[in-house]
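pipeline/complex-builder :: batch 7 item 3
reading input block
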Amino acid sequence: MSTLEAPRAGWTPGVTLTQIAAVAGRSIRRTARQPAMAIPPLVFPVALMLVNAAGLEPSTLLPGFPTDSFLAFALAVPFIQGALFATMNAGTDFARDIQTGFLNRLSLTSLRGSSLLAGQLAGIVVLGLVQAVFYVLVGLVVGVRFASGPAGVLVILVFAAIVSLGFGALGSFLALRTGSGEAVQGMFPLLFVFLFISSMNTPRDLIAVEWFRIAASLNPVSYLIECVRSLIITGWDPKALGLGFGVAIAIAIVSLVLASWAMTRRLTRT
Amino acid sequence: MTRSVWPVASGVAWRTLHNVLTTPALLIPGILFPLFFFTAFAGGLSQVEEVPGFDYPGDYKSFQFVFVLLQAAAFGGVFTGFGIARDFEGGFGKRLLLASPNRLGILVGFGLAAFVRWVITGGLLTVVALVVGMDIGGTGVDIVGLYTLALLVNVCGLLWAAGIAFRFRSIQAAPLMQMPVFLALFFAPVYVPLNLLRGWIETVATVNPVTYFLEAGRSLIAGDPTEVALAFGVAFALIAVLAVWGVRGLHRAEAAG
């Protein structure tokens, strides 16, 4: 019988929620107390957006470009890029818990594995929402007007929460499988490739190089970006919203299954 | 002087290169990132050459190739600066200072290592660009000019990063080495020629030395050399200033003991 099986007999929802809240609070506080972890996910995507928007503003002169403001077009990118950053940071923190033996010590307590994972992910989702609110505010400050209105902004926040949950679970899976912060950080370039080989800088129908257009169409990140972008520059586009939410929910489900499996394996080993 | 510099420089360069070439975590990102940027920019943004007023005579692959070549050159120097910082953090830097009859050789050695790193990355990048059919309009002399310009950028990157590394002697100073170079590169006409930039980025790009390197490099590869002397002049001036920065940094490391 593993150490986690004993408390399961006396499982109560109230205790579980308390455990989740405690782990989530720790996850948030740990990030907030490390400026090197908290600030780059906020600032770097915005800086990259401003630089890219300034340099690529002439792209809006291309026939068929969906807006006359590249800033409005590019504002969707920080939402996804920020989530990727946060994922890596959260995964690295989680891996550090494994490396330092903190997870082993936790497994000797009555804390359930599912509560630990849920708490970890709740912390990531809260941080993802803070980032999303920051990006919305930056957009408003630089003069972007959301075509879908205040309701669209709320939908963007819900979407950001789902994306954070999906990527957060992915980061947790990587941390649990590798048990190494360095290995989790090593996945960062791969996620960066997914971001750049997408429709982040150009609408897919305007990408002139065929292989790149195909790669961008196969890349799920394109649909995440296009979902947010549609709410900013188009208004309510059912197709973009359906695809975006569909992809985000699918990533979340697959990642959660993987992370839960990895958590079980990790605790069994200890 | 030269006699006492070379043994130190060659030893430092050999050790640095041995470390880089036998450590995949150090070698692979430095090679893959420029290739990736070239793929992402030349592939994903190629329609930008259709923008009215885009007057570059070559194709968009060569337009972006020059940027990525210069970026790889600059970061070849910066990544070598990371190595200097690591050496000092681990205590090897102090032993190196004690053992060197001529400490300028240390800086020269790291410079040689940065050069070889860039040759490897730049060579691979060139092969990939040629394989995907990049247009080269320039003559052999123009191309030699382009690569010489990139070499000067490599020296600038190394001297800047070395100055930081010698002063802070910790890898925690890596963002200080990296970020200003990254910003200088991206506050230049990366995606479109200077004449198409508008607003704050136009103002910043006009006074950014990287703009002159980019514009000259692109004119060389397109076979229409423009303001090349100006770019080389700016590069040599930067090297002169950064050499003082690097050597004084070395003296600071010596003084720190």
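note: Chain B touches chain A at residues 25, 29, 32-33, 36, 39-40, 42-48, 50-54, 186-187, 189-192, 196-201 (CB under 8 Å).
queue -> next item
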